[in-house]
Each structure stands twice: as structure tokens, then as C-alpha cells.
Write a structure and sequence with these properties.
This protein is α+β, with helices and mostly antiparallel strands and 102 residues long. It has 3 helices and 3 strands, in the order E-H-E-H-E-H. Helix content is 34%, strand content 19%.
């Protein structure tokens, strides 16, 4: 059963990406930063939050905010979708209980 996180718990902002991309990269804010309050989320169980924090590693701030930055694509929407996909993949991995060791 996939865990759904309501969009109201996500904060998405856009900023200018660095690197190659011609003049467009200097004028348009296409890179996306997704912020998810892991510690304060009512959507996830405590066990999933703990596993997600471990999986995310340094992407979780001291305040318990999970940050995902996407700047691979040239449009805001494509980067937004990429960030959401990456969050969904992390949550899916964290939702699977660990296999008992023998």
C-alpha cells in the first residue's frame, strides 16, 4: 500500500540553476527545491519517519526538514516532477519494513 503525502505538507520553491545552459540559466528560475517537514508530518508513522531520515542522510536538516533539489531539466515543471518522484521513491523505500535477519 503506497503512502500518500498530501501536497499541503510540501513546500516547493524555484531558484536559478548554476552550470551550463546558455543565457537562459542566468534569467529563469528553473531549479526546484522541495521541502518536506519530516518530523512534523502526520502522514507517516514513526517507524517510516525514522527509516526515511536514515535513508535521506544529509538531506535532512537539524530541524527535521527533508530537502530535495532538482535541477536536471530545463523547465520548472520537469524539475518539480523530478523532485516529487525522488521523494516518492524515498518514502516507498522507507515504507518497506526491513527483513528480519537470521
Amino acid at each position: 500500500m503506497p503512502t500518500l503525502i498530501p501536497e499541503s505538507e510540501l513546500r516547493i520553491s524555484y531558484f536559478r540553476a548554476s552550470g551550463p545552459g546558455g543565457q537562459n540559466v542566468n534569467k529563469v528560475s528553473t531549479a526546484c527545491q522541495l521541502r518536506f517537514d519530516l518530523r512534523g508530518s502526520p502522514s507517516l508513522s514513526a517507524e517510516v519517519k525514522e527509516r526515511l531520515a536514515r535513508l535521506a542522510g544529509s538531506r535532512v536538516t537539524e530541524d527535521g526538514i527533508l530537502l530535495i533539489e532538482a535541477r536536471r531539466y530545463r523547465t520548472q515543471e520537469a524539475n518539480r516532477q523530478d523532485a516529487l518522484r525522488r521523494l516518492a521513491a524515498l518514502v516507498e523505500r522507507a515504507s518497506a519494513p526491513p527483513k528480519p535477519r537470521k
